[in-house]
Design a protein that fits this description.
globular; single chain; seven-stranded parallel β-sheet; 11 helices; 332 residues; Rossmann fold; 35% helix; alpha/beta; 2 domains
């Protein structure tokens, strides 16, 4: 297969290009950067420019894989590549859904209104921007020549957010001699992670097979306590989990989901529980293969340990913050 990857230097795009090269495909990446996987060809292009794809549009492609966030990038790509590409694979997101409340909802759930403009800066518009991208792909390539992969929470080695590696890292590297690990009391929270390698492999195989349709390309959700147990197991430490009430954590300025002073993957609002709890049955039936969660967490921990000394990650509690909070929760 002659595959065009629009990207290839960032995390997911790089994994897609790497998987395609490993599978023996002829891979070209269009990107602003230069750190594409070995064996792939690089065409330098800035997709903010209207003619960024002029060179590759003159060639013939069996498939295109696009991970773009900005609607304008997608609109210009399908305009330029519809005549030269047999099929188009667009990586979208579960954020496209109008409601994140219903656990187990499938691909037929209602979507947000698409973003009209070609670009956005407000993160709140991310879902609407991806809806606009989906619409552009569907309009140009039609349902028979396009695959829309609505990815859930992507994790695994290389996760720049630090969300995937935080919990095994925290168990492996406790902030205190007792080995206590602070976690939210969120027994009903579903957590579903799709390993970036599994997603990339499936995208490449689907592109080669001509798979078409709309799919929730997401991990199979497990309860948050089960996720913590897996993280504890792969860390090989018997540290005790100290749970704190969610309101207590909020009162003490602990953030949810990601970012500084956070407990990663935690969601307070139950109206968002469906985000990581959607049905992935359609994607599994279409050949999506998911490795065990423990393998993803173990590899994420190994990757994090291998990073240069002093490397910081944007998600989680610092040692000082966790020790302080543990002291306060024991007092209360």
């Amino acid at each position: 297969m002659k595959l065009l990857v629009l990207g290839g230097t960032a995390w997911l795009g790089g994994e897609v290009a790497r998987a395609a090269v490993a599978a023996g495909h002829d891979v070209t990446c269009v990107a602003r950067g230069s750190s594409i996987p070995g064996g792939a060809r690089l065409v330098t292009g800035d997709r903010d420019q209207d003619d960024a794809l002029r060179e590759v549009a003159a060639e013939r492609w069996d498939a295109v894989v696009d991970v773009a966030r900005q609607p304008g990038h997608v609109r210009r790509a399908v305009r330029d590549l519809e005549a030269s590409a047999d099929r188009y694979v667009f990586v979208s997101t579960g954020n496209v859904y109008a409601s994140q409340e219903e656990v187990g909802a499938d691909e037929d759930a209602a979507l947000l209104e698409p973003l009209v403009s070609d670009s956005y800066e407000d993160p709140e518009e991310y879902g609407a921007a991806k809806v606009a991208g989906e619409n552009a792909v569907a309009a140009a390539f039609g349902p028979g020549r396009s695959l829309i992969a609505r990815a859930g929470l992507i994790g695994g080695p290389g996760d720049p957010s630090g969300r995937t590696s935080y919990w095994p890292w925290r168990f492996a590297k406790p902030s205190n001699p007792e080995g206590w690990v602070l976690a939210p009391d969120a027994a009903g929270l579903p957590v579903g992670i799709i390993d970036v390698r599994d997603l990339a492999d499936w995208l490449v195989r689907s592109a080669a097979a001509g798979t078409a349709g709309v799919f929730n390309a997401m991990g199979t959700p497990v309860p948050f306590p089960a996720h913590l147990e897996s993280a504890q197991l792969v860390a090989g430490r018997p540290g005790r989990i100290v749970t704190a009430p969610e309101q207590w954590l909020r009162d003490h300025e602990v953030n949810e989901w990601a970012g500084p002073r956070s407990l990663p993957l935690w969601l307070v609002d139950h109206d968002w529980y469906g985000f990581n709890g959607r049905s992935n049955a359609r994607a599994l039936a279409a050949g999506l293969e998911l490795r065990p969660l423990a393998e993803t967490l173990a590899d994420s921990l190994s990757w994090r340990v291998a990073q240069a000394s002093g490397t910081s990650f944007p998600a989680g509690l610092s040692d000082d913050d966790e020790r302080e909070l543990l002291g306060l929760v024991h007092q209360d």
